[in-house]
Task: inverse folding
């Protein structure tokens, strides 16, 4: 047999150079993603912080919304998010459980899965039109917190279902087998073992959708958000101002609004969303630490 | 015990298999298997990978209940007609528990693991009774001395061997009649294996035990009788010593000589 031909090695210097180039490219891309986010937050704080005061949070808007506070918008946002959660959390979690634990891999389950994934990609303005048609007109809830909240709920449902399903499926299968083998029903297994262990993941999904519901404007635009309504809502049949709608109104619809009021409102909206998100992160951190596998 | 834990019809053989066939889709994994398991014995099942020994074991408490599985024949375990639709899987599995290859304790405390089955089958069991059952279960698997001071620690904090013993212990408060072991030692080191085998030996007579193993020496050490399976077929069943020294079937002889498998 002939001696094998010597292998043609790439020069080490070339490989080291490629390694450095790759690292540089990755770091640059990360910076490009992070910078705009930081810039937006920084800019809004810089422009909006001067508007913040106790009165800004607690008072009604006055003088055609060019003066006063944004209290009803803050309260209205919380109402809408609350109603949307009351609908989307139970429905979403139960549907997620069904799809993860019961539906298996049947054709039906796959079709439902596909539908949900596609629903998650539907633009919010389309959800808004659906909400107008279904809740405001057909079910005759009128333009109200209920209609807007349900519209937001429908919008957030797909992600809640998907993240619930993913969280349940990340619970190791042997836990389920252990339970079934003890003569424990599927539901008892889910309730006592699977669900508690999936909770961090489920909550993270839910709370991220809370911040989305708080921030979206389109779905509430013609289902329940009021342009100017300087009072607190008292029932779900009321209309209400919301932060997202208020920003939209101040920026595009109302003349002579001081600049810092616009940015101040945006800053409060950002603050509310960031609060929800930090809460989600803290909660997940806490629950993960208790997780035992 | 609560009214829910009505005993299964007694007096019957722990397991009675008659002409049992099983298909995974179109693949025939069991081919007309006939077998009787005697009360209190340790029966081992050996054979090369894919011979159907685990499949047979899993039939005993319906652990392969997927839609693509089709079965034919008669199977009676712990007095339950396993093939009958009217037999409740929950009751069957309460009386016929399985220990798996990889220890799979639940992500809860040691105490909760042992009592988990009891809590859900008989939630009104008084605390003192439950505690007593937990202690005797842990005693029975020789784990009590090790864990009595840390019952509230996570089960995951135990060694593999102790976890496997815990998985045996958690079956015991349900008063099972038959214990099934599916390669119970293949994840354990030699010490752990010896400990589990010793445990099985001590439970001889108390429970009927069926153990599937890849390890012929293990079958030889622990079992009273041994089944040799090949390609879904039960080739031979005999007292263990006899099967290993005077196999009747040529295929058994070749397998235990290590000619294949």
Result:
């Amino acid at each position: 047999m002939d001696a094998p031909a010597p292998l043609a090695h790439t020069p080490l210097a070339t490989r080291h150079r490629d390694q450095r180039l790759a690292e540089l490219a990755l770091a640059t891309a990360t910076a490009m993603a992070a910078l705009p986010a930081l810039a937006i937050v920084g800019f809004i704080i810089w422009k909006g912080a001067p508007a913040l005061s106790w009165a800004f949070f607690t008072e009604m808007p006055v003088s055609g919304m060019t003066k006063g506070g944004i209290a009803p918008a803050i309260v209205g946002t919380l109402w809408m998010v609350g109603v949307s959660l009351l609908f989307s959390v139970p429905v979403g979690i139960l549907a997620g459980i069904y799809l993860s634990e019961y539906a298996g891999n049947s054709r039906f389950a796959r079709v439902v899965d596909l539908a949900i994934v596609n629903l998650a990609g539907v633009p919010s303005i389309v959800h808004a039109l659906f909400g107008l048609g279904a809740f405001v007109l057909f079910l005759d809830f009128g333009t109200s917190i209920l209609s807007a909240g349900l519209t937001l709920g429908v919008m957030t449902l797909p992600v809640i279902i998907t993240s619930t399903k993913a969280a349940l499926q990340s619970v190791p299968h042997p836990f389920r087998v252990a339970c079934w083998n003890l003569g424990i029903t599927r539901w008892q297994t889910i309730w006592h073992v699977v669900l508690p262990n999936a909770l961090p993941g489920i909550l993270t999904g839910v709370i991220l959708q809370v911040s989305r519901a708080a921030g979206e404007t389109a779905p509430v635009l013609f289902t329940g958000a009021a342009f100017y309504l300087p009072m607190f809502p008292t029932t779900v049949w009321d209309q209400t101002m919301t932060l997202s709608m208020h920003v939209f109104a101040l920026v595009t619809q109302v003349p002579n609004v001081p600049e810092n009021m616009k940015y101040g409102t945006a800053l409060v909206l950002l603050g509310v969303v960031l609060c929800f998100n930090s809460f989600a992160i803290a909660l997940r951190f806490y629950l993960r630490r208790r997780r035992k596998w | 015990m609560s009214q829910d834990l009505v005993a299964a019809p007694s007096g019957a053989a722990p397991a009675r298999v008659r002409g049992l066939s099983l298909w995974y889709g179109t693949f025939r994994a069991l081919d007309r298997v006939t077998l009787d398991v005697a009360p209190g014995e340790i029966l081992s099942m050996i054979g090369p990978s894919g011979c159907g020994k685990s499949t047979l074991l899993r039939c005993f408490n319906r652990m392969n209940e997927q839609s693509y599985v089709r079965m034919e024949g008669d199977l009676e375990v712990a007095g339950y007609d396993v093939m009958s639709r009217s037999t409740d899987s929950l009751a069957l599995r309460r009386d016929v528990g399985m220990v798996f290859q990889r220890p799979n304790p639940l992500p809860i405390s040691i105490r909760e693991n042992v009592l988990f089955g009891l809590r859900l089958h008989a939630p009104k069991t008084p605390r003192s009774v439950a505690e007593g059952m937990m202690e005797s279960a842990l005693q029975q698997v020789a784990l009590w001395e090790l864990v009595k001071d840390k019952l509230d620690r996570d089960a995951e904090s135990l060694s593999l061997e102790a976890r496997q013993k815990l998985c045996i212990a958690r079956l015991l408060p349900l008063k099972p009649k038959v214990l099934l072991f599916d390669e119970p030692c293949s994840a354990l080191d030699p010490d752990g294996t010896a400990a589990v085998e010793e445990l099985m030996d001590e439970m001889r007579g108390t429970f009927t035990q069926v153990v599937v193993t890849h390890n012929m020496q293990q079958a030889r050490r622990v079992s009273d009788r041994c089944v040799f399976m090949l390609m879904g077929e039960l080739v031979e069943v005999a007292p263990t010593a006899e099967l290993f020294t005077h196999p009747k079937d040529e295929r058994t002889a070749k397998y235990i000589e290590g000619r294949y498998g």
